[in-house]
Amino acid sequence: MNPNAFFNMSYGVYIASSINGDKINAHIVNAVMQTTSSPATFCLASNKNNLTCEYIQQSKVFAVSVVDNDADMKFIGRFGFRTGRDIDKFDGIKYRIGQTGAPIVLEHTVAFVECKVINQIDLGSHILFVGEVVDADNIAEGKPLTYADYHNVKKGLSPKNAPTYIEKPKA
Ligand SMILES: Cc1cc2nc3c(=O)[nH]c(=O)nc-3n(C[C@H](O)[C@H](O)[C@H](O)COP(=O)(O)O)c2cc1C
């Protein structure tokens, strides 16, 4: 098996967010897709070690904010390489609370979808959450960032908790 074939799959780059009581958190996710149109559903895969995964399991809601092409690595790194266990990821970030209570990121984003969880599958390392859409809208003009541009233009890496992470063989 050649796992490099997986890199020819296309994805976007998103911020998946959720709540736990009055606390909010979010992480970068590429593993998001629309699964049905009527009713509209989306799924996302979140690593069990991610704080956001705990929040989604607990609250049964999530929002997905679509990251734009202009987002820099500092912005992506705050949500994708740091954990909410160590920092307040929303400190200084423009956001609003959506209908589900989950935060919607309003900078470097072009659209959002908010969902309530209707099903979930334990995949070992990750949980696949299936959510029915509660609200969605465009946020700003701009182009959504593709996962290919994240790698090829922004030279971004896939961290260990991303489903696309491939461990380098030991030299
Ligand atoms: C480009 C990129 C894609 C990622 N995709 C996923 C993903 O699909 N699922 C996932 O669980 N984590 C993914 N991650 C990793 C999480 O964003 C990362 O583990 C984050 O620090 C978790 O934060 P938290 O503990 O505050 O929830 C990705 C990170 C990056 C930078």
Describe the structure.
- This protein has 3 helices and 9 strands.
- It is mainly beta and 171 residues long.
- The chain has one domain (9-152): Roll (Pnp Oxidase, Chain A).
- The strands form 2 sheets. Strands 2-1-5-8-9-4-3 form a 7-stranded antiparallel β-sheet.
- A hairpin with a 2-residue loop joins β3 and β4.
- The longest helix has 9 residues, at 51-59.
- The two termini are 20 Å apart.
- The mean pLDDT is 95.
- Flavin mononucleotide binds at residues 13, 25, 27-31, 45-47, 50-52, 76, 80-84, 126, 150, 156, 159, 161-163.
Could you outline the blueprint of secondary structure elements for this entry?
Blueprint: E1 14-20, E2 23-29, E3 32-37, E4 40-47, H1 51-59, E5 61-67, H2 73-80, E6 95-97, E7 103-105, E8 109-122, E9 126-138, H3 147-152
Antiparallel strand pairs: 1-2, 1-5, 3-4, 4-9, 5-8, 6-7, 8-9
The protein binds flavin mononucleotide.
Flavin mononucleotide binds next to β2, β4, α1 and α2.
